[in-house]
Amino acid sequence: MTEKRDYYEVLGVDKGASADEIKKAFRKLAFQYHPDRNKEPGAEEKFKEISEAYAVLSDDQKKAQYDRFGHAGISGHYSQEDIFRGADFSTIFRDMGFGDDIFSRIFGSMFGGGFGGFQTARRRTGPPRGRDVETSIEITLEQAAFGAEVELSINRSEKCSRCDGNGAEPGSNVVTCPQCGGRGQIQQRTQSLFGQMITVTTCPRCQGRGQVAEKNCTKCGGNGLENRRRTLNINVPEGIEDGVYMTLRGQGDAGPYGGPNGDLYVGVRVKQHKDLIRRGSDLIYEAEITFPQAALGAEIDVPILKGVEKLKVPSGTQNGDILRLKGKGMPSRFGRGDQLVHISVTVPKKLSRKQRQLIEQLDEEMGKKRGLFG
Fold first, then answer.
1. Is 224 left (phi over 0), alpha (psi -120 to 50) or beta?
2. Long-range contacts made by residues 114-117, C-beta under 8 angstroms, separation at least 24?
3. Residues 8-44: b if buried by 16+ CB within 10 A, e if exposed
4. pLDDT the model gives residue 157
5. Residue among 249, 240, 200 nearest 75 (CA)
6. Is a pLDDT exceeding 50 seen at residue 294?
7. pLDDT recorded at residue 39
8. Does residue 158 contact residue 232 with C-beta atoms inside 8 Å?
């Protein structure tokens, strides 16, 4: 399956483009690739692509969802019908001299008619979907490295315990909505110079479910919802990075009147480690050693994700050298990274008399050796 291109890239606009700039860009591309005008291979697919991009970016709510979560935020929240619902195609195509029946031809039965019969995408009958919930967790670097199960407490709407989510007081019935006749939708027909326009909207009385309660539940007021505090166990995968959002399908707010749940978005924050710094799949540790250790070589203790590792510092190690502990870093799809040990040779600020004498002797000895080649 081909990966979708960025919607802004498809329309050739910047992310901060205004609504007018987005509309102008779409008009230009739609005129260029409209299948009634452009018969070249691939024109229809290009037209579908730019139409979808415009349908999302011209809608404030869909655009905000896309800006935050990318294509996953659209495909996870909207059906193909929902993506196109509400977009102002008829006016645009009319101004360009094209019929908007193009959608009936290339998108199938999702759209009806052309001028005189254009209608917005039909909403699926049934109770509305619950809202998405966003929260965050904080984990340690060790948990990010090896994965963990983390407890998360959230407040969310759940099915009412008194009416079991149908909104009706126990003992009363749920009946067909008298306003929409059980369809969950209401059609409004208006006449214009271009013919009859049909607009399909969700029934305001039953909110799309096609049924209403004879008597509303006394606990939830008829919407079938109540707020609860829930503790969830979140499985954090190994190698997760700071700032990533995890999507838990169906763990958001319950939908009113028994509708499906929304999703839960969990932002992950990784605490700063006291010793280690993460750089991609590698970890960095700053090790301070003395001049004698650098000159003569030594074995030092280096903290790693799981305990402490012995590291051999070779003789002649210089300040700024980097030593490597293979496979002690973070996991990635390419395998586990390394731990890089940055060597810093410390110089004492104060010396005892004996230390000074020894260093002076060393300096004198090294000076004599340098003199042999001077």
1. left
2. 115/90, 115/194, 115/195, 116/194, 116/195, 116/196, 116/197, 117/195, 117/196, 117/198
3. bebbebeeebeeeebbebbeebbeebbbeeeeeeeeb
4. 95
5. 249
6. yes
7. 76
8. no
**Alpha-carbon dihedral 248, 251, 253, 258, rounded to 10 degrees:** 130
- Helix, strand, or coil here: 181? coil
Which pLDDT value is given to residue 110? Answer: 44
Question: Alpha helices of 154-205 — where are they, by DSSP H?
Answer: none
Q: What are 61's strand-pairing partners?
A: none
pLDDT tens by residue, 176-225: 999 988 888 888 777 655 556 677 788 888 888 888 999 999 999 998 99
Residues 29-66 have pLDDT tens digits of 888 887 767 778 888 889 889 988 998 998 888 888 88
Q: How far apart are CA 316 and CA 229, in angstroms?
A: 61
Q: State the burial class of residue 299 (Cβ atoms within 10 Å of its Cβ: 0-12, 13-18, 19+).
A: exposed
Structural tokens at position 171: 């003992």
Q: For 341, list phi and psi in degrees, rounded to 5.
A: -105, 110
Question: Which tokens go with 372?
Answer: 């042999």
DSSP-derived letter for residue 68 is H
CB 209 within 8 A of CB 140: no
The sign of the CA dihedral 174, 227, 236, 129 is positive
- Let me know the angle formed at the C-alpha of 119 by 117 and 125, rounded to the nearest 5 degrees: 135
CA–CA gap between residue 277 and residue 345 (Å, rounded):
19
HSE-CB for 198 with a 13 A CA cutoff: 15
Q: Which pair of structure tokens corresponds to residue 325?
A: 């502990």
10 Å CB burial of residue 363 (0-12, 13-18, 19+) is exposed
Please tell me the predicted confidence (pLDDT) of residue 86.
Answer: 65
- H helices of 12-132, where? 19-33, 43-57, 60-69, 71-75, 80-84, 89-96, 102-106
Position 94 scores a pLDDT of 55
**Which residue type occupies 208?**
G
The token pair at 333 is 């799809």
Residue 319 has pLDDT above 50, yes or no: yes
